Amino acid sequence: MLPAEIGPGLDERELDRIEERFGFRFAADHRVFLAAGLPQGTRAWPDWRGGDPADLAHRLAGPAEGVLFDVEHARFWHPDWRARPAQTSDALRLARAELAAAPPLVPVYGHRYLPATAGQWGHCVLSVHQSDIIVYGNDLAGYIRHEFAGRASGLPTRRSTVRFWSYFVNGGPGIDVRAPTPHTPYAVSAQEAVEYLRMLALERLIGRRLHPHHLIEAALAALVLGVETEALVLLAGLTRAGSEGADALFDRALVELGLAEGLPTDDTDLPWESARWELVRWWLRLIANGSMAPADGGDVIVHEGWEALAHPRALRPLVDRVDAYHGRGRTGLVRGCSWPLPSSRRRGVCWRPVPGHRRIDPVRQNGNLPSGAGAETIGPATRCPTVDGMKNLVAGLTAAAAVLLLAPAPAHAAVNPAPCIAKSGPDATETRADSSVDDGEIRWTDRTGYDDAFKWAVAKWQYPGSRIKIVADSAITSNDLEFTDYSSASDVAAAKWERRPGTGATDCIRFNRAKMSRYDADTRREVAVHELGHALGLCHKSDGGSTYVRSIMWTGAHSLFTLPQDVDKANYRKLWG
């Protein structure tokens, strides 16, 4: 499920000892997560069982220390605190006392944190860089899907309700990367006006917020440029006070202009993949033509393109430029740098190293910036960009956007087949003999109560280019595979594919009602697709460590994705052509 090795979960006594030693209480869902299995194999995951206590204490102190850094260097002051003293040293003492009363944040992965709210669950996961704090998951499960599968929840981003920390994401200095895209409308022709309406529709499709006045202004621009429909006229005539019907009128306008039918569908395992790539190229064009600030556009593309599309190689040059501009890296941020960044992102906040930050740092160990960046000395082994250096970085961002625009639209890179988890024995290789396929097809019968799940699996394994027909049995054909159910609370498996050797024998996929009844529809579909993969001859694939691949053939039920992945299709092609 996760790109990490999963060790045995923490038992109740271990969890209690951790809470007692470090003086906090895990949230209920965080506790359940760690009890189910302990992610390990990379420093980004806190090692609650055998980790260095000093390192764990450092991670726990990180959010408060980050805020204190901004109190000292960026004059940050929380509105609920008492009046700020004139002397910085006094301000720090008061801020430290105030922070001691705030709910602690507990590290989940890298610089993602969950509030320590004993007995409670469902709080937002926060991404924390000093006082630049954003919501990175509506809850722990939603965060895991977002961070490791690039899959948004489909729900509106929730507002944090945890005391003190909620200020930063509910109107404080943090950035909300799902806020309306900060850009200047550019249309000067009818064609561009229609294109702009389509881009707004795509942004709404992937979950970005559009305020009614954005839709009204787009309709006005279209009318001025000669694009006219009944709904556009009505939309353009709305006022800010009476804009409740803007969304409905915008939908009507899309239909009248013939744009609604041409919107892409969410038909791959990456969320709105086609729509996101179209938007990425649009955002690049906005940067290149000056309609969007490079740093703001870069942030949007990193969040909605790079992160959501599972880090496509084509975007790496732009992502590196964005990181260089913000001075951030996998090991942290340039300590002591206080250049002003766009007001839409943060209010002149200084940056410092953050434990567990995952991006590559542009600062080498000797403290020097990449050649040509331009820097001035702030302290020992620390150098920050000068104004000229920042101009160079902005120019580099714009140039990177222009270069990417000249490249063809990204195509999926070729994926190689992946090895089986097992290193020896019959499960160590994939063979046609170890499958339910007979003469190029699988004839099935249905004796299961999970019709939606098995029919989904049958449909999804017959993707364009697949060779094996998977069809219902008939009175004149021989049955190859039976879908059926059983119930066993003690059985850890949610389902099993069982090979029954012998002439005329029928293999079966058996769903365990004791497990399946507890799963949502997506998890049941994933289980069915996984088991039908076994019937097609595919083995288990690694979900962690150095051999990690993104595969429907991971062990363990999940709802991160419900389709055969690229690597599964590669193994399928190797086996069946």
Please describe the topology of this protein.
Blueprint (H helix, E strand, L loop, with lengths): L4 E3 L4 H11 L5 H9 L1 E3 L12 H21 L14 H13 L4 E5 L2 E4 L9 E5 L2 E6 L2 H10 L16 H4 L20 H16 L6 H13 L5 H7 L9 H11 L16 H16 L5 H14 L8 H11 L1 E2 L2 E2 L42 E4 L2 E3 L2 H20 L34 E7 L3 H10 L8 E4 L8 E6 L8 E4 L8 E6 H4 L4 H15 L30 H11 L1
Parallel strand pairs: 11-12, 11-13, 13-15
Antiparallel strand pairs: 1-2, 3-4, 4-5, 5-6, 7-8, 9-10, 14-15
Helix pairs in contact: 3-4, 7-8, 7-11, 8-9, 9-10, 11-12, 11-14, 12-13, 13-14, 15-17
Please provide a written account of the structure.
The protein is an alpha+beta fold and about 575 residues long. The chain folds into three domains: about 5-170, no CATH class; about 295-405, no CATH class; about 425-575, Collagenase (Catalytic Domain) (3-Layer(aba) Sandwich), CATH 3.40.390.10. It has 18 helices and 15 strands. It has helices spanning about 10-20, 30-35, 55-75, 90-100, 140-150, 165-170, 190-205, 210-225, 230-235, 245-255, 275-290, 295-305, 315-325, 385-405, 450-460, 515, 520-535, 565-575, and strands at about 5, 40, 105-110, 110-115, 125-130, 130-135, 330, 330-335, 375-380, 380-385, 440-445, 470, 480-485, 495-500, 505-510. The strands form five sheets. It has a five-stranded mixed beta sheet. Helix 15 packs across helix 17 (about 520-535).
